């Protein structure tokens, strides 16, 4: 028998999806399977799926202010809620229009959509629990409230050590990722990593936020190294110790959340703590693959 | 928008931003209705830019800022002046600061 609710856990946060329709094995993309848990945890967020648009949303919006309007998004903020109006940019998407109404802390999220039949919902393979094109918007906020940040990087577990690879386009992130995968190191996530302080230690968490990429793991690892990549003619790893250089590098790869002033204060505090508690490196590498030996030696068990 | 920057001009910081100094790098996030504006990138100032920013108090003339920096960094007055003017123009265009005089 199919349930109308399911639970998924990432970075210590349990998401309960409750739907007006039954949730089948194929409602969400297969990548979600490894994040599924049997019940609620100690920190829970509720997402409700509704299949008609809410009548009251215009009134709620009228009491708030538009804070963003670009591409598929129109976002309003009232004193008590965030309202996301989503219009798909691709005519092939099952969800053409959706409205998300989030409580201030995003612990309660109501998603409203229309023209989506029970049958289509049951085999949709949605890439996001919100039914939008990504859940990134909710997680940047949920993480920021929990001493966490989302980092534009690839994450690896190298001998039990959590390692982030970050770099601008063309810096060789995909090349090094392919080399490390070939050596059997576990990739936690491609392109967007969750970083959160748990019991005084920053950990990195695989997650489902980046489209339907197959390289996704629900594992986590303590963050032991943050690597900024540079293609070179040699293979070496060099620690960056100058605080201003670290800050400059770090701030380029943080995924910007939608936060109010208090939220930003908290977010900046987390970034500062992350900078203090983490070791940062510049890694230079050529295409020989020898850099993997350097990393293996550096990040030993 | 007034981007006429003179040495006797006085500037102050806008209320529609949130700024944080992280190890000498000043991060500036523009706000829209009290929320970080997703349309705009976070803006970063290096240590010299941060030193200038801290003097944009609505009282200090640009000429005094340039003099202080020239002394502190033991650098050519004219070079500092041109750099400060260019920085002011950038910050004005981004609506991070405005001229009070």
Distance between the termini of chain A: 44 Å
CATH topology of the largest domain in chain A: Rossmann fold
What are the secondary-structure elements of chain A, in order, as H or E? EEEEHEEEEEHHEEEHEEEEEHHEH
Main beta sheet of chain A: strand number and arrangement?
9 strands, mixed
Work out the strand percent of chain A: 35-45%
Quantity of strands of chain B, as a count: 7
What do you see in this structure?
The complex is a heterodimer of chains A (301) and B (101). With 301 residues, chain A is α+β, with helices and mostly antiparallel strands. Chain A folds into two domains: 3-133, no CATH class; 148-298, Rossmann fold. Helices cover 22% and strands 38% of the residues of chain A. Chain A is built from seven helices and 18 strands. In chain A, strands 3-1-2-4-9-8-7-6-5 form a nine-stranded mixed sheet. Chain A is globular. Chain B has 101 residues and is an alpha+beta fold. Chain B has one domain (10-96): Arc Repressor Mutant, subunit A (Orthogonal Bundle). Helix content of chain B is 37%, strand content 31%. Chain B is built from three helices and seven strands; from the N terminus they run βββββαβααβ. In chain B, strand 3 (25-32) and strand 4 (35-36) form a beta hairpin. Chain B is globular. The interface between A and B is medium-sized, with 27 and 22 residues.
SSE order and pairing:
The complex is a heterodimer of chains A (301) and B (101).
Chain A: E1 3-10, E2 13-23, E3 36-37, E4 44-50, H1 57-62, E5 65-70, E6 73-77, E7 81-87, E8 97-103, E9 108-113, H2 118-122, H3 136-144, E10 148-152, E11 154-158, E12 161-166, H4 173-182, E13 186-189, E14 192-198, E15 201-205, E16 220-231, E17 236-240, H5 243-253, H6 261-277, E18 280-285, H7 291-298
Parallel strand pairs in A: 2-4, 4-9, 12-16, 16-18
Antiparallel strand pairs in A: 1-2, 1-3, 5-6, 6-7, 7-8, 8-9, 10-14, 11-12, 11-13, 14-15, 15-16, 17-18
Chain B: E1 10-13, E2 17-22, E3 25-32, E4 35-36, E5 43-45, H1 47-54, E6 57-61, H2 62-73, H3 77-93, E7 97-99
Antiparallel strand pairs in B: 1-6, 1-7, 2-3, 3-4, 3-5
Helix pairs in contact in B: 2-3
């Amino acid at each position: 028998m199919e349930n109308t609710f399911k639970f998924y856990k990432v970075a210590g946060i349990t998401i309960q999806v409750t739907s007006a329709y039954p949730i089948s094995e194929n409602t969400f993309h297969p990548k979600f399977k490894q994040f599924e848990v049997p019940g609620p945890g100690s920190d829970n967020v509720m997402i409700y799926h509704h299949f008609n648009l809410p009548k009251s949303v215009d009134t709620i919006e009228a009491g708030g202010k538009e804070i963003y309007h670009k591409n598929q998004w129109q976002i309003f903020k009232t004193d008590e809620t965030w309202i996301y109006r989503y219009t798909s940019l691709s005519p092939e998407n099952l969800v053409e229009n959706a409205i998300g109404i989030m409580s201030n802390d995003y612990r309660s999220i109501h998603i409203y959509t229309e023209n989506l039949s029970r049958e289509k919902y049951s085999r949709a393979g949605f890439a996001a629990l919100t039914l939008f094109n990504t859940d990134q918007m909710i997680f940047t906020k949920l993480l920021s409230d929990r001493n966490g940040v989302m980092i534009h990087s690839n994450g690896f577990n190298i001998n039990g050590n959590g390692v982030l690879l970050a770099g601008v386009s063309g810096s060789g992130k995909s090349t090094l990722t392919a080399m490390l995968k070939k050596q059997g190191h576990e990739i936690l996530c491609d392109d967007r990593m969750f970083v959160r302080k748990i019991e005084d230690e920053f950990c990195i968490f695989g997650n489902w936020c980046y489209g339907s990429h197959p390289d996704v793991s629900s594992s986590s690892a303590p963050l032991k190294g943050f690597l900024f990549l540079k293609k070179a003619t040699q293979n070496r790893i060099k620690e960056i110790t100058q605080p201003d250089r670290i800050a400059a590098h770090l701030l380029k790869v943080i995924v910007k959340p939608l936060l109010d002033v208090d939220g930003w204060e908290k977010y900046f505090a987390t970034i500062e703590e992350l900078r203090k508690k983490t070791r940062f490196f510049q890694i230079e590498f050529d295409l020989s693959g020898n850099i993997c030996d350097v990393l293996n030696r550096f990040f030993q068990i | 928008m007034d981007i006429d920057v003179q040495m006797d001009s006085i500037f102050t910081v806008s209320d529609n931003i949130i700024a944080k100094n992280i190890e000498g790098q000043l991060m500036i996030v523009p706000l829209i209705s009290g929320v970080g504006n997703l349309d705009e990138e976070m803006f970063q100032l290096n240590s010299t830019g941060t030193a200038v920013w801290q003097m944009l108090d609505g009282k200090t003339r640009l000429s005094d800022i340039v003099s202080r920096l020239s002394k502190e960094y033991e650098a050519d007055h004219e070079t500092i002046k041109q750099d400060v003017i260019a920085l002011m123009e950038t910050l004005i265009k981004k609506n991070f600061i405005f001229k009070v005089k």
